[in-house]
């Protein structure tokens, strides 16, 4: 549960407090996604993707420049990733679904990084075998999202160390300990692996350029928590003779509790892609809502969708049609829609989604090998 008084902390390893996204734009020095930029994107994508239309992706760096390059006939690569610390939840899918959309529209190649090394280094009780195991398991979720096998390479950090280490040392040589300490809040007692690790997460920004000898722009879709990595990487890029990687940042999908992002550390408020549909349904049934304590009060005063995870899931993932969403909002506000009814409607959509995703996950086992980078 994230209380309003708790200090806002957003780092790759901790997200807590009430998130003020405008403040993050200021503090991280990123740019808001403006109406003008949306219009420009729309020229290429046709109808804007739900996650852009509804402001889930809210901030960027150099996205306008990526479009300049693209319009001038240059290709760019996409890069995103996962720290395999357990099963994937539907919050993780948010940037991946958007990345697939970008791959479809712009025909871009995607590098997807599995940081089994990172999760081993930051979790005191993790063995390397455990995080590597999750990396191969989570790769099935990535494939299930529907990426193009001919344009997607999944990098397994430990397995692919041969290729990535050669680039990581070039990056690492140009970053000081004090920079990493400040950007990631590390201390004297942090293990030295995690001090080096940001150089590894920087590598896929440059891998296409390194492997082809052509300076290729890179765009990274991810939630805003990953931003410290890109701040450091952007400083290094020109020193290596490469373009600074561009970013497009999304907000966090909330958990099913009261406030706070969806996080695997709170499994009851988290919908995992591997949850049995009935288990997910039960979690939804137990979820916090923006509703009133009694049916009578709800009918009289209406609910508050602005704090309701059930509404958010429709808003960010499960209700594609704006008209239907607006209708849900209206009915909720004026007390026509009761929370129990809304939960049943959402649970049906989530169960359908999970059944489909789980089928695709099974099929992904047959093609996993074709997606793996394997030091190529
Ligand atoms: P990880 O595994 O913490 O998260 C994977 C991706 O999911 C995003 N994310 C969320 N998005 C929306 N709502 C949420 N509740 C939510 N929780 C997490 C994260 O921002 C991320 O995009 N170090 C990384 C792995 C990584 C990576 C990358 C991520 C390596 N290279 C490049 C993005 C881009 C990590 O541990 O992600």
Q: Could you explain how this protein is built, in words?
A:
- There is one protein chain.
- This protein is an alpha/beta fold.
- The chain has two domains: 9-256, HUPs (Rossmann fold); 267-362, Orthogonal Bundle (Tyrosyl-Transfer RNA Synthetase), CATH 1.10.240.
- Helices cover 53% and strands 10% of the residues.
- The chain contains 16 helices and nine strands.
- The protein has a seven-stranded mixed beta sheet, sandwiched between helices. Strands 1-2 form a two-stranded antiparallel ribbon.
- Strand 1 and strand 2 form a beta hairpin.
- The protein is globular and about 65 Å long.
- The mean pLDDT is 95.
- The site of tryptophanyl-5'AMP (TYM) has 24 residues, from strand 5, helix 5 and strand 8.
Which secondary structure elements does this structure contain, and how are they paired or packed?
Blueprint: E1 9-10, E2 15-16, H1 21-28, E3 31-32, H2 35-45, H3 50-53, E4 57-61, H4 63-71, E5 77-82, H5 90-106, E6 110-114, H6 116-122, H7 128-144, E7 152-156, H8 161-172, H9 177-184, H10 192-212, E8 218-223, H11 227-240, E9 246-250, H12 277-285, H13 295-301, H14 309-318, H15 322-333, H16 339-371
Parallel strand pairs: 5-6, 5-8, 6-7, 8-9
Antiparallel strand pairs: 1-2, 3-4, 4-9
Helix pairs in contact: 6-7, 7-16, 8-10, 9-11, 10-11, 12-16, 14-16
The structure holds tryptophanyl-5'AMP.
The site of tryptophanyl-5'AMP has 24 residues, from strand 5, helix 5 and strand 8.
């Amino acid at each position: 549960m994230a209380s309003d008084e708790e200090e806002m902390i957003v780092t790759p390893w901790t997200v807590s407090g009430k998130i003020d996204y405008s403040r993050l734009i200021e503090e991280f020095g990123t740019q808001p996604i403006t109406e003008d930029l949306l219009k420009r994107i729309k020229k290429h994508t046709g109808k804007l993707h739900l996650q852009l239309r509804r402001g889930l992706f809210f901030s960027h760096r150099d996205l306008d420049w990526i479009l300049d390059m693209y319009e001038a006939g240059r290709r760019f690569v996409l890069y995103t990733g996962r720290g395999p610390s357990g099963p994937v939840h539907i919050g993780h899918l948010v940037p991946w679904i958007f990345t697939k959309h970008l791959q479809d529209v712009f025909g871009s190649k995607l590098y997807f990084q599995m940081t089994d090394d990172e999760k081993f280094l930051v979790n005191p009780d993790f063995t390397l075998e455990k995080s590597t195991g999750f990396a191969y398991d989570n790769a099935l979720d990535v494939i299930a999202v529907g990426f193009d096998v001919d344009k997607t390479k999944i990098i397994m950090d430990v397995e692919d160390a041969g290729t990535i280490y050669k680039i990581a040392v070039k990056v690492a040589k140009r970053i000081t300990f004090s920079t990493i300490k400040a950007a990631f809040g590390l201390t004297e007692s942090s293990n030295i692996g995690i001090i080096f690790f940001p150089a590894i997460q920087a590598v896929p920004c440059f891998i296409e350029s390194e492997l082809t000898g052509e300076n290729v722009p890179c765009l990274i879709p991810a939630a805003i928590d990953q931003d410290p990595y890109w701040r450091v990487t952007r400083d290094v890029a020109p020193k290596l003779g490469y373009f600074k990687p561009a970013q497009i940042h999304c907000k966090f999908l909330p958990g099913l509790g009261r406030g706070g992002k969806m996080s695997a550390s709170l499994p009851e408020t988290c919908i995992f892609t591997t949850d049995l549909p009935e288990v997910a349904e039960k979690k939804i049934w137990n979820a916090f809502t923006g509703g009133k304590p009694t049916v009578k009060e709800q009918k009289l005063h209406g609910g508050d969708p602005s704090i309701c995870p059930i509404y958010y899931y429709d808003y960010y993932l499960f209700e594609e049609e704006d008209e239907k969403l607006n209708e849900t909002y209206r009915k909720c506000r004026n007390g026509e829609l009761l929370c129990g009814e809304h939960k049943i409607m959402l649970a049906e959509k989530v169960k359908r989604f999970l059944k489909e995703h789980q089928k695709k996950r099974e099929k992904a086992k047959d093609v996993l090998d074709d997606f793996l980078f394997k030091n190529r």
